[in-house]
Design a protein that fits this description.
The complex is a heterotetramer, with 1 copy of chain A (about 350 residues), 2 copies of chain B (about 400 residues) and 1 copy of chain C (about 500 residues). With about 350 residues, chain A is α/β, with parallel strands linked by helices. Chain A contains 12 helices and 13 strands. Chain A is globular and about 65 Å long. The N and C termini of chain A lie far apart (about 55 Å). Mean pLDDT of chain A is about 90; it is low at about 1-10. Chain B has 2 domains: about 10-165 and about 240-390, Orthogonal Bundle (ABC transporter involved in vitamin B12 uptake, BtuC); about 165-240. Chain B has about 400 residues and is an all-alpha fold. In chain B, helix 3 runs parallel beside helix 10. The mean pLDDT of chain B is about 90. The radius of gyration of chain B is 22 Å and the shape is globular. The longest helix of chain B has 27 residues, at about 175-205. In chain B, a hairpin with a 2-residue loop joins strand 2 and strand 3. Chain C is α/β, with parallel strands linked by helices. Chain C folds into 3 domains: about 5-240, 3-Layer(aba) Sandwich (Rossmann fold), CATH 3.40.50.300; about 260-340 and about 430-505, Rossmann fold, CATH 3.40.50.300; about 350-425, no CATH class. Chain C contains 17 helices and 24 strands. Chain C has a 6-stranded mixed β-sheet, sandwiched between helices. Chain C has a 6-stranded mixed β-sheet with strand order 18-21-22-15-23-24, with helices on both faces. In chain C, helix 4 packs across helix 5. The mean pLDDT of chain C is about 85. The chains are: A alpha/beta (about 350), B mainly alpha (about 400), C alpha/beta (about 500). Bound molecules: adenosine-5'-triphosphate (ATP) (2 copies) and magnesium ion (2 copies). One adenosine-5'-triphosphate (ATP) binds next to strand 2, helix 1 and helix 14 of chain C.
């Protein structure tokens, strides 16, 4: 069958499915996607899956009903989205996996990405670069242990950090499971799962705060002083930073983040958060939309490489992530017009 | 015009039962108009029914639980957990589908019976017992998927349950033959049973509706079955999910309306003390209802896992609230003793239609939540008001 | 000011479909005891609910003049504030709360904004004394029997500043002793200037206590009788109530008992684990085929418990002793087993544990014996309708159709449905627990007639009753229970009220 | 040894009331031993109480809702929604804290009253009415945060509510003076009120516990207050959150046990029909209880937002289940009429202690869920069994 078998005039050319409206990041994406097609003949519709793979599939089906030709999908769970995109593939729709790779299926045509492993690696590298001396206490935190992406971020960071843990630069302060695995660079899913089970924040700032408080209570004086904190994203980073900032035995701390949320940009300006991994959504949106328009215009999109998703090699266009800290925050976020200067104090 | 008058009294007498159907009709009409017919397209209806499947079976189960004055919050994560177990058995132990399915269904029944045991024998209020179950199954699903994360199911037979369609035999003018046959069969069976029931009643000299009304009723129901069949036949025909829903409806409808056990369930819901003194084993009925709930949770888990072709770590999250909402939209009463299988299914379809229609219209997710909340409230207000009048 | 404290004029009240009150006129003189009598469903309770504001102003037609003023009660407290206090037919107590809390709920003793618990307890004790009830005020009400609860209701009413006290069948659940006490209490209250309206089906009481009596039938006032003119006699009341004369309250029958013992209990004891004591001790009793056995006793004497222990041990007591059915020893673990063996039990509290109020007449009648009208677990609905119709006709159940919800029927008709349900089981032993409680004379007569017919067909009946007249009028033999024990057995020829009371209070 | 015997009867008579305290003690002991005393450290206890705050106030509210035989599922998202509104008023409308707080509390009360209206006047079962509320508030919170995403609250006064401590005046040996004073005051007040109650009872010739037992009781409770004060004074002293919890407990304990309104709530819960016939306005009580629930939801939202110093788009998710679980662990009865304010608070602290202790021990998240589920089930089984005996 070919696309567009159903009637109706409300036809849409590009369908977009985003994971959840609960995280500001995807709300930003929504606006930028809308803007990207504003002055073309093509139309788009964006649906949110609210963290449910089932709703994701419903969304894809709805969009197929509206006769889309290209599907841009940021899966909630890359492994569970196979069924949804296979349905799209059957209709002859071109599937672009956006930001997160859909695995174990041949129904993905393109992948536009920041590369989740690279995000984690950037966080780990920043910690490495920022600390001085040896035996620096390292506090690890991760996203939800029910979220595949949380594993990818953590894995990326672990690969970078592990050699320095093994050689004594860092001492793990809050996870016995991680401590036990400190000599192993390539962790299995199972091993990662054990660590995440202990240091998960569930992506929830409140959970992160509880955990951070508990960990600082448990930590002896030798695990305080100048410390490093791996926080998975900006929401949790801020609440963890709040806790570390109020412990008098912590003389200084470096803490990571991700997403360049406005709130965290302010924290960075205020010196409360050290860095955030800025993923310039505009580039990603432009890449994805560029691809989509190429496909609609029957041109072949340009790609920069490929990723194996367990079944096939998916042609990919990769965008580099940018590490933002107090030094370059103005250049990367304000001068590039990602945010307005008026939105922040103390620039 | 006696016909019109007959119709009027019929409707006003049964407004509660018909309300739901009317609501569904109105929702269908509104969305069809707003989407220029897209909503009613073969494909959308087919997708909509499929997407309602795993909630619909849960709704049937929980409707009965509510009828006997209990509640079950654990069903969502139980379904998710059993779905994960199914995926593990299939992919890690490489068991064949025909062994995995019965195992899962049995496990579900056992889990349900255990809940029933806590409620009936130990005497824990169902709300708390199943809240504890909610926590436990939530932990359990994380536990079994910890090693692997999301488990992809690569088994065509299993995946067909949630994604496949019954074979068409022959495609006629783009229509699906076997589906058409099933529809025709359904119409014949319905008419036959309706006529024989009526004849039987007349033999006993019981009151029956007038002949005109009766024919109208036959034509109406036949037309609806025909329309649904026609719509579905225009896409891929009946999906396996729809067939499973139909089976569940038929079996449960029969069990609840025609059998002694069904009657006993409603008796227990209506007055547990009186049921006990009437020689009904209240504990047994409670166990049966929770056991059936577990069975249907397992079925829901299978449908869901198959539909996604994978078991995720968060599968089942908040299914229970969707199912309970569907049951209430379908007219079950919190006071116990009142509720219908068809109601629960219609409730689930109403909720799925809302999602589907609003998605087609591109309504923002925040409004979707609010509108669904509003519809749920309205449905129950309607129910409460008509019931009050009926008194 | 007129001699009437209360005048209700042209009161009409309609429930959807039912005209419960139709232009009722009702006048009560200051300081009198005024009885309100009438068949079940005549509208007595409804009239009193209109008066007390349970059905607020605006939901009925007509006018209430109280103490010379036209009153509009929008809620219950409006009537209480004018001194009208009503004790409802369905007791209004809080099982989880203590006796003293129950007495003063809605009428708290306050010190500023706070409750003065100490004073409350002291006052509660005074109230309990007034009604001659000797219980610790800190007892939870759920631990008391139904009779004591009735007295607590009265104590509760007295704790308010009452001018017009209304009692809806206050003695229905009481034994003769307590009833007498209560009537004495009412006379005392009358001396203190309290006017009293009492609804009762016990005509003897009405005759002894009433200054005047109003008869209501089918939602209409029939006549007000005056005691001083000698109008209050059993015959006049009954004639006005049912619209015809009833020669004999208890239908005549021939004694037709056989020798086979249907039921025999030997050294039968039941221990209630929740209460931690024996509710039945060492009972010996038997019922022969075709007999009606009366089981008399005071409130709380354990008659209901005895019945429940026989009826499949429905409350899961620890049992001792032997139960023989047709001479065969039996051990039941569930009512279903007793039903199968041929025992039926019509409960005392038909609304609470007898009927499915949300279901129709037909489902109620078939509920205990669905097996009989089903094959392989599938019900034959036509058969069900036939069966239900049969009992509706034979028991004269007044209802619009078999599909009417039982909750909408009047008390007497509900009792008939309950009876029908158990007759359909086809028992050899029928246990009736207070079969005519709260039922009018007409319906009573019908139920007695049915009982007689049943024993003629060879059934045996064990009838628990607190109405001695009924026990003496209907039984072949009488057992008297007290404190869980069988205190004695009396053949009907030797039985009279004094003997029974003597045994019961032994 | 009459003392010992007196003690025994006292305990066996009140096992249900004491059970919870004993459970809490056991949990504290186990975790203290397993963590080598870390669990009982000043800092951990202080953090633990702070982290329990927003659930504890919800638990008190929902306990009363359960007492009158209803339930409220909407409280989590209502708290989240109101927290977001607070953040918006503070940061976008730049209103001062002392205006924002009352506005939010009033909004919460109105929302609660509206739920109460649906339940009491319209007659919708609370479960469904609040399930609809759940959906609606969930949509609403997404709606108001859509433009901005997470809203950071930069307002020291506001943030102190969830993070600050009462001023110490003077630090003595590292101990917090004002906190110590409050503790001492608490002990004096407790002893004074206990003695005067006893004296009063004796004046009326009511039964009282023996003098020895009474003194033992005084010493015991005083010691516990002293211990808690001492522990907290060793860190930063009483936090504002703890002060707020204490205030809520005091006010609600007083309202429920000493006032007419409080008694009416329990009367309605015990038997709504009887309450109505006793002249209690059941609708009014229902409105009041739901209104108070809304008020406490608002307070919870304020505590939570302040604690995170920001309003997130998912704030409030599943708070309702945590709060309901806490209330049940605290001994509220699903049958209505039974439940205590102190119980609800202890329940919330038990659940928070489990989280804290297991986090200290590094227990994996999947086991944490399962253990919490198990504890909830055990608590209710204990309650059911002791109640059965008590009858
Ligand atoms: N809430 C109600 N809804 C509908 N009908 C009612 C309701 N309450 C009473 N009725 C009907 O009104 C009529 C009068 O009932 P009411 O309870 O006043 O009778 P009664 O004289 O007190 O009888 P009894 O002696 O059995 O108590 C009956 O037909 C009854 O079925
Ligand atoms: N729920 C209960 N809790 C405590 N005691 C109870 C309870 N129910 C009944 N009792 C007690 O058990 C004994 C028997 O009660 P019951 O009222 O059933 O006897 P009965 O002979 O049937 O009296 P009645 O004539 O009132 O029906 C009484 O002492 C009563 O107080
Ligand atoms: Mg009455
Ligand atoms: Mg009795």
């Amino acid at each position: 069958a070919c696309s567009g078998t159903t009637g109706g005039s409300s036809k849409v050319s590009v369908g977009i499915v985003l994971p959840t409206k609960d995280e500001p990041r995807w709300v930003q994406d929504e606006q930028r996607f809308k803007d990207a097609l504003a002055n073309s003949d093509y139309t788009t519709e964006i649906l949110f899956s609210q963290g449910s793979s089932a709703k994701e599939k419903e969304n894809v089906e709805t969009l197929l009903n509206k006769g889309i030709q290209v599907l841009i999908i940021a899966p909630h769970d890359g492994a569970a989205a196979g069924a949804a995109v296979e349905a799209a593939k059957k209709e002859g729709v071109t599937v672009i996996s956006y930001d997160r790779l859909i695995t174990e299926t041949d129904a993905v045509d393109y992948y536009v990405t920041f590369d989740s492993l690279a995000v984690g690696a950037a966080q780990g590298q920043y910690l490495l670069d920022s600390v001085k001396g040896t035996n620096v206490p390292l506090y690890l935190y991760a996203g939800a242990s029910s979220d595949n992406n949380a594993f990818l971020f953590f894995e990326g960071a672990w690969k970078v950090l592990q050699p320095k843990i093994a050689d004594g630069t860092f001492v793990i302060a809050n996870s016995t499971e991680a401590e036990a695995l400190k000599d192993k660079q390539e962790l299995t899913r199972d091993e990662l799962g054990k660590i995440l089970g202990q240091v998960t924040t569930n992506w929830d700032p409140n959970e992160a705060k509880n955990k951070a408080q508990t960990h600082l209570t448990a930590a002896g004086a030798d695990l305080k002083g100048d410390v490093a904190v791996l926080a998975p994203n900006d929401g949790t980073a801020r609440s963890i930073a709040d806790v570390f900032g109020t412990d008098s035995d912590i003389s200084s701390f470096v803490i990571t983040g991700q997403d360049a949320e406005k709130a965290s940009v302010q924290y960075i300006l205020d010196g409360k958060q050290s860095m955030t991994v800025f993923k310039d959504v505009r580039t990603l949106v432009a890449d994805a939309m560029g691809m989509a328009i190429d496909i609609l215009d029957k041109k072949t999109p340009t790609t920069t490489g490929s990723y194996n998703n367990g079944k096939v090699d998916v042609k990919a266009k990769q965008t580099n992530v940018i590490v933002v800290d107090k030094e370059n925050v103005k250049k990367e976020l304000i001068d590039s017009e990602y945010y307005k200067a008026s939105e922040f104090k103390g620039l | 015009m006696t016909l019109i008058n007959d119709l009027k009294t019929l409707i006003s007498k049964n407004i509660r039962d018909y309300g739901m159907y009317i609501a569904l009709l109105v929702i269908f009409l509104i969305f069809t108009i707003l989407t220029n017919g897209l909503f009613i397209s073969s494909r959308n209806i087919s997708n909509l029914l499929d997407s309602a499947g795993y909630i619909a079976v849960l709704a049937v189960g929980v409707m009965l639980v509510i009828v006997i004055r209990h509640i079950d919050l654990s069903i969502g994560f139980l379904a998710g957990f059993l779905g994960a177990i199914a995926a593990i058995l299939l992919m890690q132990y490489h068991l064949p589908v025909y062994i995995v399915l019965p195992i899962i269904l049995i496990l579900g029944t056992i889990a349900g019976l255990f809940t029933g045991f806590l409620v009936a024998k130990v005497g824990i209020p169902a709300f708390v017992a199943t809240l504890a179950g909610w926590l436990i199954y939530r932990g359990a699903i994380l536990q079994v998927t910890e090693k692997t994360g999301t488990i992809i199911v690569q088994n065509d037979a299993f995946n067909a349950i949630g994604n496949g369609y019954i074979p068409s035999i022959v495609q006629i003018n783009g229509l699906h033959l076997l589906s058409l046959l099933i529809g025709v069969l359904g119409i014949i069976l319905y008419n036959f049973s309706a006529v024989s029931t009526r004849r039987n009643k007349m033999k006993y000299n019981f009151e029956v509706v007038s002949k005109q009304i009766f024919i109208l009723q036959l034509v109406f129901v036949s037309a609806i079955i025909a329309a649904i069949t026609w719509i579905l036949a225009g896409y891929n025909g009946f999906s396996w999910t729809v067939i499973i829903i139909l089976l569940v409806v038929l079996v449960y409808h029969f069990l609840t309306t025609k059998t002694v056990m069904g009657r006993h369930i409603y008796a227990v819901g209506s007055n547990p003390e009186a049921a006990h003194l009437s020689g009904i084993n209240v504990n047994k009925i409670t166990l049966i209802v929770f056991g059936s709930m577990g069975l249907l949770s397992a079925l829901s888990g299978i449908l869901f896992t198959s539909r996604l072709q994978s078991a995720t770590t968060t599968a089942g999250t908040l299914f229970e609230l969707d199912a309970i909402a569907a049951a209430y939209v379908g007219g079950v009463s919190a006071a116990g003793g009142v509720g219908k299988v068809t109601g629960a299914i219609i409730g689930a379809i109403v909720m799925a239609s809302l999602t589907s229609g609003m998605n087609l219209l591109g309504v923002g997710i925040s409004y979707q939540y609010m509108i669904k909340g509003g519809v749920l409230a309205l449905a129950v207000i309607f129910d409460v008001i008509t019931r009050r009048k009926g008194n | 000011m007129s001699e009437y404290i209360l005048e209700m004029k042209q009161i009409s009240k309609e429930f959807t479909g039912v005209k419960a009150l139709d232009n009722v006129n009702f006048k009560v003189k200051k300081g009198e005891i005024h009885c309100l009598v009438g068949e079940n469903g005549a509208g007595k309770s409804t009239l009193m609910k209109v008066l007390s504001g349970v059905y607020p102003y605006g939901t009925y037609e007509g006018e209430i003049v109280y103490e010379g003023k036209v009153q509009q009660f929008h809620k219950i407290n409006d009537s209480v504030n004018t001194g009208i206090v009503i004790i409802y037919q369905e007791l209004a107590l809080f099982p989880d709360l203590t006796v003293y809390e129950n007495i003063f709920t809605g009428n708290e003793i306050k010190q500023g904004a706070l409750i003065d618990w100490n004073e409350t307890i002291v006052e509660a004790k005074k109230m309990l004394e007034k009604v001659n009830l000797d219980v610790n005020p800190e007892t939870l009400v759920k631990d008391l029997g139904v009779g004591k609860r009735q007295l607590i209701e009265i104590a509760k009413a007295l704790s308010k500043d009452v001018k017009l006290l209304i009692l809806d069948e206050p003695t229905a659940a009481l034994n003769e002793d307590d009833s007498e006490n209560l009537l004495k209490l009412l006379k005392e209250l009358k001396k203190q200037g309290i006017t009293c309206i009492m609804i009762s089906h016990k005509l003897k009481e009405v005759i002894t206590i009433a200054d005047s009596a109003t008869v209501i039938r089918d939602g209409q006032t029939i006549r007000t009788l005056d005691a001083s003119k000698g109008e209050i006699t059993e015959n006049t009341i009954i004639k006005n109530m049912v619209g015809r004369e009833i020669q004999d309250i208890y239908p005549k029958r021939v004694k037709n008992s056989h020798d086979e013992k249907v039921l025999e209990l030997k050294n039968w004891s039941a221990y209630d684990q929740k209460l931690g004591r024996h509710v039945v001790k060492n009972a010996n009793l038997h019922v022969k085929k075709g007999e009606i056995i009366g089981l008399a006793g005071l409130m709380g004497s354990g008659r209901t418990e005895l019945a429940l222990s026989i009826f499949g041990n429905a409350k899961a007591y620890k049992l001792q002793g032997d139960l023989l059915l047709d001479g065969m020893p039996k051990a039941f673990n569930h009512p279903s087993e007793a039903i199968k063996a041929g025992i039926a039990y019509v409960t005392e509290d038909r609304k609470g544990d007898g009927l499915f109020l949300l279901q129709d007449i037909k489902s109620n009648i078939s509920a205990a014996n669905l097996q009989r009208i089903s094959a392989n677990g599938v019900i034959n609905e036509n058969e069900e309708i036939k069966v239900a119709d049969r009992y509706k006709t034979s028991l004269h159940i007044k209802a619009t159709s078999l599909e009417q919800l039982v909750g909408k029927l009047s008390g007497g008709n509900q009792q008939k449905v309950s009876l029908g349900k158990w007759l359909f089981v086809g028992p050899k032993l029928l246990i009736l627990d207070e079969p005519t409680r709260g039922i009018d004379v007409g319906a009573k007569f019908e139920i007695y007639t049915v009982m007689n017919k049943l024993i003629e067909e060879g059934m045996s009946i064990l009838m628990i009753s607190s109405e001695l007249g009924e026990v003496l009028g209907m039984s072949d033999r009488v057992y008297v229970m007290g404190e869980g024990e069988i205190k004695g057995e009396l053949p009907i020829e030797n039985a009279d009220q004094e003997k029974i009371m003597q045994l019961a209070t032994q």
